[in-house]
Amino acid sequence: MHIDTITTVTAPDLAWQEQALCAQTGADFFFPEPGSSVREAKRICAMCPIRPACLDHALEHDERFGVWGGLSEKERLALRRTAAR
């Protein structure tokens, strides 16, 4: 007798994204062209109550592009390297 197992994959809980200020402003600030300023995105992130959840998500999912949780790609990489030590 062969018993099949069913694996259920659930979507991550991303409800926090609906409350994030970036959801109300658009992605242009948060995914700028290379070499462009991220100052405006960081200013918006600084006011966002969801910033910690956003940064956790970015670090957990190894987001490589854009501003997440108030940090740029380079800043998140530096944070990961520091944490790995």
Distance between the termini: 50 Å
Largest sheet geometry: none
Sequence stretches where pLDDT stays below 50 over 5 or more residues: none
What is the number of independent domains?
Answer: 1
What gyration radius follows from the Cα positions, in whole Å?
A: 17 Å
Shape: globular
Structural class based on helices, strands and sheet pairing: mainly alpha
Number of helices: 5
Oligomer: single chain
Helix percentage range: 40-55%
Count of beta strands:
0
- SSE string, helix = H, strand = E? HHHHH
Strand content: under 5%
Mean pLDDT over the residues: 86
Which descriptors would you attach to this protein?
single chain, 85 residues, mainly alpha, 5 helices, 0% strand
Give a verbal description of the structure.
- The longest helix is centred in the last third of the chain and has 12 residues, at 73-84.
- The chain has helices spanning 16-19, 22-25, 39-47, 51-60, 73-84.
- The mean pLDDT is 86.
- The termini are far apart.
- The chain has five helices and no strands.
- It has one domain (16-84).
- It is an all-alpha fold.
